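Inverse folding, one chain.
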C-alpha cells in the first residue's frame, strides 16, 4: 500500500468518525457539544494531530502540487491530497485544549484554514489553471504559518515551506 492510499484511508476513517456532527463553521461550540454527546472526542492532542496526520498530509500535497498536473493520475494525486487536508481541517473544530483552543486566535485561524483549504480543493476539483492552484496552495501554507505564529508563538514549530523547486 503506497503512502497516498494509506493517508487517504486514515483520513477517511478519522474524518468519518470524528467530524460526523461538525456541520458548519459557525456551530463551533454546538459541534463540540454534539461530538462529545456522540462520544466523538479527540484521540490525539493538537500537537500529535499535527505530527501524525496534518504534517504527512501536507507533505503529500506539497509533492502533488510541485508541478502542474498533466495526466489523469497527476490530477487524482492532487485531488486526493488536497481533499484529505481539507477534510482533516474539520478535526480542528472538536478540539478542546487549555492554552491552545481557548485562545480567540485559534478559532480565527481554524476558520481561515478551513476556508483556504476548501478553496484549494475546489480549484483542483474544477481543474483550474495551475497558477490558481499554486496561489491557493500558498494561501494554505501561509495560513498554517500564521496559525503557528499566533496560537503557539512560544513553541518551536518549523515554518511550513512550499516545494523546493519553487
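Residues assigned per position:
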Amino acid at each position: 500500500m503506497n503512502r497516498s492510499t494509506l493517508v487517504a484511508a486514515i483520513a477517511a476513517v478519522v474524518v468519518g468518525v470524528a467530524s460526523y456532527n461538525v456541520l458548519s463553521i459557525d456551530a463551533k461550540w454546538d459541534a463540540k457539544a454534539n461530538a462529545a454527546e456522540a462520544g466523538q472526542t479527540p484521540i490525539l492532542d493538537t500537537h500529535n494531530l499535527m505530527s501524525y496526520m496534518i504534517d504527512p498530509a501536507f507533505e503529500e500535497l506539497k509533492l502533488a502540487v510541485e508541478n502542474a498536473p498533466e495526466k489523469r493520475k497527476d490530477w487524482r494525486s492532487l485531488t486526493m491530497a488536497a481533499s484529505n487536508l481539507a477534510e482533516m481541517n474539520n478535526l480542528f473544530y472538536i478540539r478542546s485544549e487549555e492554552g491552545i483552543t481557548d485562545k480567540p486566535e485559534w478559532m480565527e485561524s481554524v476558520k481561515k484554514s478551513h476556508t483556504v483549504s476548501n478553496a484549494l480543493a475546489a480549484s483542483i476539483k474544477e481543474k483550474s489553471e495551475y497558477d490558481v492552484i499554486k496561489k491557493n496552495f500558498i494561501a494554505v501554507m501561509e495560513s498554517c504559518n500564521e496559525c503557528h505564529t499566533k496560537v503557539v508563538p512560544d513553541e518551536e514549530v518549523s515554518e511550513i515551506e512550499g516545494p523546493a523547486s519553487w
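The chain has one domain: 3-21+29-151. The domain at 3-21+29-151 is CATH 1.20.120.10 (Four Helix Bundle (Hemerythrin (Met), subunit A)).
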